[in-house]
Amino acid sequence: MADQLENSIPILERFRLDNRVALVTGGGQGIGRAFAHALGEAGAMVAVVDMVADRAETVANELATKGVEVMAVTADITKADQVKRMVKTILDCWGILTISVNNAGIAGWF
């Protein structure tokens, strides 16, 4: 049975993220940007979260050009009120949050 399944579904199809909603903190550059692109290309809807609005918007525009359903969210994840607003924004738009990539770099004590 397992052999039949392995042969019937191409490997990349097993990793599809259709109908999943992902948020990527620190998504405006570096590893976060790469995660946002990978998740979007795999079929997920992506919320690109960054504390710098222009960076989040730039990556969101890159993904939109690829046909990804995407939003840019500006939030400082060290601030509880901004984290709550971020999650509310995503839930208000897509109704669910299934993947969280907690990538933002934080220095200091909070």
TrEMBL record:
Q: Which UniProt keywords apply?
A: Oxidoreductase
SUPFAM superfamilies according to UniProt: NAD(P)-binding Rossmann-fold domains
UniProt cross-references to Gene3D superfamilies, sorted A to Z: NAD(P)-binding Rossmann-like Domain (3.40.50.720)
What the entry lists under InterPro entries is as follows: NAD(P)-bd_dom_sf, SDR_fam
Q: Which residues form the signal peptide?
A: none
Q: Cite a single GO MF annotation.
A: oxidoreductase activity, acting on the CH-OH group of donors, NAD or NADP as acceptor
Alphabetical list of Pfam families matching this protein? adh_short (PF00106)
Return the PANTHER family for the record.
Answer: 3-OXOACYL-[ACYL-CARRIER-PROTEIN] REDUCTASE FABG, SHORT-CHAIN DEHYDROGENASES/REDUCTASES FAMILY MEMBER
> What does the similarity note say?
Belongs to the short-chain dehydrogenases/reductases (SDR) family.
Task: Tell me what this protein is called.
Answer: SDR family NAD(P)-dependent oxidoreductase
Q: Which organism is it from?
A: marine metagenome
